[in-house]
Amino acid sequence: MAALGWLTPRRRSATARSVLAGEASAEAARKSTQEAPAAPGEEPEFPVPGDDRAAAFFDLDNTVMQGAALFHFGRGLYKRKFFETRDLARFAWQQAWFRLAGIEDPEHMQDARDSALSIVKGHRVSELKSIGEEIYDEYMAERIWPGTRALAQAHLDAGQRVWLVTAAPVEIAQVIARRLGLTGALGTVAESIGGVYTGKLVGEPLHGPAKAEAVRALAAAEGLDLSRCAAYSDSHNDIPMLSLVGHPYAINPDAKLRKHARELDWRLRDYRTGRKAAKVGIPAAAGVGAVAGGTAAAIALHRRRR
After folding, report:
1. What is the spatial distance between Cα 78 and Cα 245, in angstroms, rounded to a whole number?
2. If you count Cβ atoms within 10 Å of the first and of the last residue's Cβ in the chain, which end, N or C, has fewer?
3. Rounded-to-integer distance, Cα 224 and Cα 52, Å
4. CA distance 172 to 186
5. In which element (H, E) is residue 239 found?
6. If we measure between CA atoms, which residue out of 269, 241, 246 comes closest to residue 59?
């Protein structure tokens, strides 16, 4: 287990393995859940209420949740004697690097992938799902960014579907999505036979171009119009996914994504310091919703933990 997901692909462009990973994640997500023009000078209402061909896609780590979900999951597994103290120390260092540097180092992610697969190999899928529910309450619920949660709720209130899209294992992602009241989750799919993990992946980690492939596959299956959809992320690695939709948002962005967002006039929000981004801000209604909705989200999360 490690702090940074299951590993970035070696190439920036989509490969056959990227497509396979995306399609596998979209299928897993589906199984788990079985605009009027504005007046001149006015910003159109967004999200658009009642637009059932629109949806929102949220990256997880540092976008919806502070830090890396996989690190918090690792803490829970360590508590349950899945691995030793020296492994936890390594994961803690990777988590610190991820949060302070704001980048996903390929070597760290290679180690993350190998460690995670070796730890879950031989365990039952149902076991990891059950443990994931407990770990969410122990370590994750209090680390949800209220502002981002409010943005997701705005899409839900408008009658739209909201999906997490993450390199974390799909089982973890699905737990988080369900506990936040979201539609579902796209995540890295680990191979299992007879309900037992084999220690291999289906395709590759859901990272970078693979995320875009997953969103594209899900949109086709669900009849979504990507030009009417929104996507939210903190990382420049998710530019392929953000570029796929008509409404891209940079949330708590790293330096490269912030620069890219400003160049393309994408909307931006930074909840790490509470400051509002200049020029490329979220529409006023969403800004107000982030404050009011954030408070409501915090109360809701508290109630769910009780």
Report:
1. 38
2. C
3. 8
4. 10
5. helix 239-244
6. 241
Instruction: Assess contact for 288 and 296: CB atoms under 8 A.
Output: no
**Which amino acid type is present at position 30?**
R
Largest separation between any pair of C-alpha atoms in the chain: 62
Residue with tokens 């988590």: 95
212 with 26: CB under 8 angstroms?
Answer: no
Tokens of 188: 């890295």
CA terminus-to-terminus distance, the chain: 28
Do 53 and 223 form a contact (C-beta atoms < 8 A)? yes
Count Cβ atoms within 10 A of the Cβ of residue 215 and give its class: 0-12 exposed, 13-18 middle, 19 or more buried. Answer: buried
| Structure token digits, residue 47 | 């999200």
- Asked if residue 251 lies in contact with residue 281, where contact means CB atoms within 8 angstroms, the answer is no
Q: For position 7, what pLDDT does the model report?
A: 35
- Cβ(161)–Cβ(55) below 8 Å: yes
Residue 273, Cβ neighbours under 10 Å: how many? 7
Question: Residue 143: which of 105, 174, 84, 99 has the closest Cα?
Answer: 99
The stretch 237-252 carries a mean pLDDT of 97
Give the DSSP H or E segment for 172: helix 170-179
Yes or no: say if 121 and 160 are a contact pair by the CB < 8 Å rule: no
Q: Cα(138)–Cα(111) distance, rounded to whole angstroms? A: 25
Q: Is residue 57 within 8 Å of 229, Cβ to Cβ?
A: yes
Is this prediction's pTM over 0.90?
no
Integer Cα distance of 300 and 306 in angstroms = 10
**What are the residue numbers of the active site?**
59, 61
Tokens of 130: 């059950």
Dihedral sign, CA of 100, 106, 112, 113?
Answer: positive
* C-alpha–C-alpha distance, residues 239 and 226, integer Å: 15
Model confidence at 11, pLDDT cuts 50, 70, 90, reads very low
- Segment 239-251 shows an average pLDDT of 97
Residue among 281, 259, 285 at smallest CA distance from 270 = 281
CA distance 127 to 121: 12
